[in-house]
């Protein structure tokens, strides 16, 4: 469908007439509504799954990285409304009392999801084979497993609207001496 819109856009842009520009605006709006509808369906399907936390990669710099992949891939990636999908996923998850955690994507595709060994040579195209333990799987599935583990372990970043306190921070706060009236926190001695 996106290829169809890209073809129509290119054809109309080459004409440059007033009617072509008007039709181009109409097609652009139609494409945006189509993409938003697809993003709503995808996010609804994800949030309906029986999980309380959803882990996704931080994709803020994906457009910069895509320049090295080739023109067809770059066009497809730049047309992908991943930020909109992210926002739909977050507000639908929040409405259902669920959370979305953002994960740093570094090394998720190079790390073995079984033994934890990180090596660039583990991944070759779509296949993943750990040089340390010999584990083999589709590379995207291996990366998805790593992202899931990071999401469950709390190594992701929750949005600011969801306060997150690790267990060791709670234990440290229990040791705060609240008897002193000045602003600086005082900790009880270890005696």
TrEMBL record:
InterPro entries: Cas12f1-like_TNB (IPR010095). Pfam families: Cas12f1-like_TNB (PF07282). Keywords: DNA-binding. It comes from the Archaea. One of its GO terms (molecular function) is DNA binding. Residues 82-147 form the Cas12f1-like TNB domain. NCBIfam families: guided_TnpB, IS200/IS605 family accessory protein TnpB-like domain. This is Transposase. It comes from Candidatus Methanoperedens nitratireducens.
């Amino acid at each position: 469908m996106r290829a169809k819109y890209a073809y129509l856009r290119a054809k109309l842009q080459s004409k440059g007439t007033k009617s072509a520009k008007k039709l181009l605006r109409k097609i652009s709006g139609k494409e945006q509504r189509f993409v938003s509808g697809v993003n709503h369906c995808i996010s609804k399907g994800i949030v309906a799954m029986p999980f309380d936390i959803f882990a996704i990669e931080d994709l803020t710099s994906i457009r910069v990285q895509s320049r090295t992949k080739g023109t067809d891939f770059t066009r497809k990636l730049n047309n992908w409304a991943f930020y909109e999908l992210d926002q739909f996923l977050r507000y639908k998850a929040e409405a259902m009392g669920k959370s979305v955690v953002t994960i740093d994507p570094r090394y998720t595709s190079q790390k073995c999801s079984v033994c934890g060994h990180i090596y660039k040579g583990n991944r070759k195209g779509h296949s993943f084979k750990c040089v340390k333990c010999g584990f083999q799987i589709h590379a995207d599935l291996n990366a998805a497993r790593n992202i899931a583990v990071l999401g469950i372990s709390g190594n992701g970043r929750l949005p600011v609207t969801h306060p997150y306190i690790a267990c060791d921070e709670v234990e440290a706060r229990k040791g705060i001496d609240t008897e002193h009236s000045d602003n600086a926190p005082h900790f009880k001695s270890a005696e």
